[in-house]
Request: fold
Amino acid sequence: MKYSRLTKEQFEELHQEFINFLATQSITADEWKDIKENKPEAAEQELDVFSDLVWFGVLSKVEYLEHISPQQIHLFKCREKDMHLIALKIKNPAIDFTTKEGFQWLRDNLLSDSIEFFNAKKDYSDDKYMDIFKIIQQGANITKGELFQYFEKLIGQKS
Reply:
């Protein structure tokens, strides 16, 4: 398996897609039941292959990622050959970006000396989608990029 196994909840959500996946391999519902009961390792393999297909589909559409922690915000724009990063770091440990109050403080004090901005570009490794997957595994969320675009305009960078 290249990425990670989908959770039980994710499999339940993608129940119809999984049925279609099995059908493309000419596996009927009865055959699937038999595989699960008598060949659990084969069933595990099918779950892993399906999980990787789902992850690949998701990762190939990712344009923006956000990772917000108490003291830092990392905003990523996933481009064709590289990733553009805008990062903010707060020098005041009393401020927590993950709270409503901390985010409001950020809005009110955006140009304060307490906030450091970083701007970087990073080329992908040989596997763009694994690079994106690793950032998601570290806690980033896939977004529409509103925050990235806002800060991109604010710092006057065009990616």
Notes: The two ends are 33 Å apart (CA to CA).
